[in-house]
Amino acid sequence: MSSSNSHTSTIGAIGAPSRRNTELALLVFAVVIPLFAYMNVGLAISGELPPGMLGYGLGLGLLAGVAHLVVRKFAPYADPLLLPLATLLNGLGLVVIWRLDQSERLQQLGKASFGAFSAAAPKQLLYSAIGIALFVAVMMLLKDHRVLQRYTYISMIAAMGLLLLPLVPGLGKNIYGAKIWIQVGGFSIQPAEFAKIVIAVFFAGYLMVKRDALALASRRFMGLYLPRGRDLGPILAVWAMSILILVFETDLGTSLLFFGMFIVMLYVATERTSWIVFGLLMSAIGAVTVASFEPHVKVRVDAWLDPFSKEVIAQTGTDQIAQSMMAFGSGGTLGTGLGQGNSDLIGFAANSDFILATYGEELGLAGIMAVLLIYGLIVERGVRTALAARDPFGKLLAVGLSGAFAIQVFVVAGGVMGLIPLTGMTMPFIAYGGSSVIANWALVGVLLRISDTARRPAPSPAPNPDAEMTQVVRP
Amino acid sequence: MSELTLTVMRLGFLAVLWLFVIVAVQVIRSDLFGTRVTQRGARRESGGRQAARQQASPPPQRQQGGGRQSGGRQRRGAPTKLVVSEGTLTGTTVALQGQTISLGRAHDSTIVLDDDYASSRHARIYPDRDGQWIVEDLGSTNGTYLDRTRLTTPTPVPLGAPIRIGKTVIELRK
Questions:
Q1: Is the pLDDT higher at A382 or at A152?
Q2: Does residue A54 form part of some domain?
Q3: Domains in chain A: how many in total?
Q4: Which of B17, B31, B35 is nearest residue A13 as measured by Cβ atoms?
Q5: Phi, psi for A139 (deg, rounded to 5)
Q6: Percent of chain B at pLDDT above 90?
Q7: Which domain holds residue A431?
Q8: What ipTM goes with this model?
Q9: What is the pTM of this model?
């Protein structure tokens, strides 16, 4: 076709397609993989297909189906990958928790310490259901994430309240040296997991208003932008808060998570490298100071520096870290196969804080890399959502939530693998723990809501009847 | 359960897990969205096609970017792309497919110049009937320069000759 005549070109936006069918296909895949794993575990342990296979399969499939239908109805343009990735992790978590339930060693340990052993997998399935319910609620009630912007300071107070709850006498519960649980009815809840989302809302709202002052009003000194004293106020306040969490609740993970999230969001909001330098310096100072006089933290640091020494094991009363590293080592490249490892030697918390060691042993380096990549993909989709979001609040919120997710994965994986001192946090989605699963489903819900707003095509302009009539036709 | 079955299942599971990761990455790859160059009038495609041909005005053609060559009209030695070699857009290339390329600060230009010295509709580059590429200044404030000379009339662009608009330099390349 001859095209030598001239017409003008326009650059138009390609709207992201809806992609709901892609999501459905991936979701089916994400439900089939855990079923395969479940079958594999059953065959390896007892030589026959596990009896609860139909139940768990239907349960997970039903949850995924409900979540998908809700997304289809309420967020049709949302990211197609977040839901399948989260579902796969949740499903794999269920399988591995069930696999650890079958371990006789852990069953005896449970009987010895709590009087009776109760299987964790059914409870985890229940928590997943509650998590999906919260996800559905977020999808249905939060029509526009910008509504959250109105609650900037309320969410600050709410986050503070949630963080302080475990310190309230009678409500808080001290489990193994960390005061991060509260006891409500028969359940223990970790409020910090929920505070993570709430505080991201506060940071996003606050930084959106203050970012110009933080970015521009500064003096240059030795290649670094030194912020003014009054702008340093908020960062100092958050720092003090995270140190206080560390001191009073002895919860290294949460304080690291909050401070890290604030630094990430500050950097994204202001584009100033100096904030990262300040943040790293301040967290180093804080950590070293606290570690030198807080015995609980000091023990953790000792166990990190020398996990195999007899004194340290005697002092901490457990050889969890040593066992965890042995599990990773014995897994090798391709792993021992699901249900055939000995990661239950870790004992207490084998299915929560240390669950990654089971993946490392039974799926090997190849498997754990895949799992970490899936986490990476979730973070990538979060950051991609932030890039696509048009409003600064949505951008900051998406970066903050995915940053928090990434930091949490790093802190837990690093602790279990001996890269950093162990902290009492749970691996999102795969670890046993109600608060963690429920809060992370809510987090994915908020991310999906932002991505739906970001990817929704702009409404097409009203057709202009004059346009057709004023065409210039050249002979 | 035999050792062999378990080994096969173990490796099979790892393969399936990685397959999921790869599929997810493929979905990301196909999930690109952003901007696309569309020729104006492409929306009137179906109805106006016959009439347009009779008026010796070619039917609008939809350009999707990428390396699609227009028919067999490409001459040997003819430029195939336009490259921005200086200025804020350095490195940008636009495939030449017989369409007019408009340059300027206006948002609907093919190349939106972020240049203080550019006018909103600064210049355009288009092929004439022989496929020779022509640059034409559209009455810009600060002028369009081909090499060192300021353009006053539509002028053919030799391969590799710099077209200057403010701080931006554009070349046609093979």
A1: A382
A2: yes
A3: 1
A4: B35
A5: -60, -40
A6: 13
A7: 19-455
A8: 0.86
A9: 0.74
